[in-house]
Amino acid sequence: MADIDPRAARHGHLIKERRLDLGLNRPAFVTEMRRHGQEITPDYLNKLESGRAPLARASVEVREAIRAVLGWDADTWFEKTGLFSPAATSGRRPPPVPPVVDPIEMPLVIPDALQQMIDEHGGRYSQLHNERALRILTAPRLFGGPTEGPQTADQWLDYFLMIRGYLPK
Amino acid sequence: MSYDLDHLPADFIGYIRALQAHAGHEPHAFRLARALNVRVRVGPHNITLPDAEPSPLIVVQPWWFGWNNSVLRHELAHIAMYWSGLEAQVLDAYGPDAGWSVIERLCCQAEAFLQIPQPAVDDAVRRHGVTARAVLYLARITGARPEVALRRLVYDNPELERAGFLTSGNYISETATCNMALPFSWLDREPYPLTRFPHHARVTAHRIPRGAGIIGVCSV
Which of B24, B52, B153, B178 is the most exposed place for a label (fewest CB within 10 A)? Predict the structure, then answer.
């Protein structure tokens, strides 16, 4: 038998524990899932709970339905499982240790080459008009320092395409 | 009232220490990232996105992924700098060009602090004092290179007066000074570095095991 991923086993244990706390047997849990628009079988639920089917590999829709049945809000879900929920309202989580100084908002400075790239490709990628996305894009936290970062419009495009999946929409 | 940048190194190191304490003084970079809820992914470049959603993200090149390495620690230091609020203060004070260089250097210094947690340093000082032997002890128990252990010990408290050096053959290969000057500089030719110190200086030295040099540590 293949080794079970420890994280999958932990997720499975969490689901089972919460399900039993709620007094749901497996068929009842599956019925609740159906109410949230997701069809899963008791066998699949068994695999999830044992860790043989990793929760992290389930579709976002199934995970969201499980979260709803378990009655956890998005933040609690993230805290317990470490998995992203699109329902998270706060977006970013606060730092684990409070800041040393009060945060200050810096003006957004867009380099010329980036502006050129935005002018050329802004119509195709809406994130290039999102201020938060641009703040992430323009902060040169690259290993080796800011001089290692993109310098031309083409390099900015490559860099943007590489990280766009992590930028706010 | 604006932030007083005199406190910047001490505040940053203090924040790193607080994060490590929060994570149970985890010295392994990848496990530390997990403990701090920082995602680590593979990509073509090493970058940090501390304000990514839903949690901070580090992208590392494949050969750095999952390893206990200084690249990951450097990127974690960037996240710590962002979380501490000091990053914005530095950028505000110095402007983006100089500011990012200052941030980069501070994050390089923080690597030693992330690799060698405070309990290890306290243990080394309790056993050997602020000496060359303590540097060797730190290097041995944490797997850090001697120069990293030297920097960790010398910069442990920004208020204290400490300095140290490493030699390679007849040359000074590494220096670390904290509120104290050394009688020579990095890359100087010094066949007998200990003779350059005044008699009253509290200098200790030890040969680097299996190396062609010595470690020297000086404190007040």
Answer: B24
Residue at token pair 């970013």: A92
The answer to whether residue B3 scores a pLDDT higher than 80 is no
pLDDT surpassing 80 at residue B121: yes
* pTM recorded for the entire structure: 0.71
Report chain A residues whose CB lies below 8 A from the CB of B70: none
CA distance A31 to chain B (A): 30
Give ipTM to 2 decimals: 0.77
The torsion angle over the Cα atoms of residues B133, B137, B139 and B143, rounded to 10 degrees, is: 160
Give me the long-range contacts of B54-62 (CB less than 8 A, separation at least 24): B54/A78, B54/A84, B54/A85, B54/A88, B54/A91, B54/A92, B54/A93, B55/A78, B55/A92, B55/A93, B56/B82, B57/A166, B58/B33, B59/A162, B59/A163
Radius of gyration of chain A measured on its C-alpha atoms: 21
Whole-number pLDDT of residue B203: 92
Contact between chains at A100 and B14 (C-beta distance less than 8 A): yes
Contact A130, A168 (CB under 8 A): yes
Which range is least confidently modeled, A140-149, B27-36, B100-109, B194-203? Answer: A140-149
Interface of A with B in 105-134 (CB under 8 A): 105-106, 109, 132
C-beta atoms of B22 and A96 within 8 A: yes
Which of A104, A109, A131, A143 has the most B C-beta neighbours within 10 Å, making it the best mutation to test the interface with B?
A143
The total of other beta-carbon atoms located within 10 Å of residue B175's CB is: 21
B124-171 residue pLDDT tens: 999 999 999 999 999 999 989 999 999 999 999 888 899 999 999 999
A95/B53 Cβ within 8 A = no
pLDDT at A142: 62
Q: For residues B10 and B127, give the distance between their C-alpha atoms in angstroms, rounded to a whole number.
A: 25
The CA distance from A64 to the nearest CA of chain B, in Å, is 15
Is the model's pLDDT at A1 over the cut of 60? no
Q: Which candidate from B23, B45, B52 shows the least CB-CB separation from A166?
A: B52
Which residues of chain A lie closer than 8 angstroms to B49, CB-CB? Answer: 136, 141, 163, 166
